[in-house]
Amino acid sequence: MKRFALKDYGPAKEVLIEIDSEPRLVDETHVRVELVAFAINPYDVALRQGAMRDVRTLKFPYVLGNDGAGIVTEVGKKVTHVKSGDEVIVHAIGGTYGEEIVVPGKKIVKKPAMMSWEVAAGMVTPWLAAYHLVTHLLGESIGETVMVQGASGAVGSLLVQFLKEQGKTVLASAAKRNESWVSQLGVDQFVAYDEADAGKIFADQADTVIDATKGGRAGEAGMQIMKTGGNFVALNELPKEQKKTGNYFSFGPAKEYLDFEALTALTKLADKLQLKIAEVLPFTLASVIEAHEKLEGHPAAGKIIIKKEK
């Protein structure tokens, strides 16, 4: 079984390798999935670079990847919601960079027929973040007007759509080049951060501000936009100096955030959600290296997906 693994921390070209692994056994609570597509995430890049080593130790060779989509080939006897032959969406702790994966049954749901393999693989982590942030972290306290900074990214764009489904007023910022993409998602007002100061334009208007920018670079403007006593949520780093009274949250995964619940919600909204796919690359080591290198820079909006040839 072909898989793409890390042999150490370091530059993509130096540490990403192709390995041949023995298939894992499937116990009564697990499912084997032949992967058709998997997504490359910024978190994968951080792991490879060693940026996460203080909180997550890797044993090499380590197969990266949390998000994938594929076809069920074997099912444990206690798993009843899928069967062999089903097309499924997968969220794994790691290991989706390969031809197949064995995961707990609670980590997969059936893929809606209208959803492409690329979108199914690319949706997973961004949707989990958007869903759990809105539904569990904030809940009723989110308010009626929400500002999404970094609205062109995978998480940001899904936040916009999920919030609009709930009837919220959504303010948004992104680069000018992404204005048409963000606008078509239904935002109520948009500011291009590279042309105008969103902090001044939207000052004191949002009950909740969500900073979904790369590196959390929009904190100053976000605090201006948040109403006094409102919520400020950062997907990356919170502002070092919190200049306005409010509730400040650094969002991350939590044990109480259930994958099966969130992925089931995704399947119910599948016909209403859009995800921009920047590029689909072939199932090769060179593609994985290329994707990692692109994510280290300033890539265009959209997910990079690795997909097998039919």
Automatic annotation (TrEMBL):
<dbReference type="InterPro" id="IPR036291">
    <property type="entry name" value="NAD(P)-bd_dom_sf"/>
</dbReference>
<dbReference type="GO" id="GO:0016491">
    <property type="term" value="F:oxidoreductase activity"/>
</dbReference>
<dbReference type="InterPro" id="IPR013154">
    <property type="entry name" value="ADH-like_N"/>
</dbReference>
<protein>
    <submittedName>
        <fullName>NADP-dependent oxidoreductase</fullName>
    </submittedName>
</protein>
<dbReference type="Pfam" id="PF13602">
    <property type="entry name" value="ADH_zinc_N_2"/>
</dbReference>
<dbReference type="InterPro" id="IPR051603">
    <property type="entry name" value="Zinc-ADH_QOR/CCCR"/>
</dbReference>
<dbReference type="Pfam" id="PF08240">
    <property type="entry name" value="ADH_N"/>
</dbReference>
<dbReference type="InterPro" id="IPR020843">
    <property type="entry name" value="ER"/>
</dbReference>
<dbReference type="InterPro" id="IPR011032">
    <property type="entry name" value="GroES-like_sf"/>
</dbReference>
<feature type="domain" description="Enoyl reductase (ER)">
    <location>
        <begin position="10"/>
        <end position="306"/>
    </location>
</feature>
<keyword id="KW-0521">NADP</keyword>
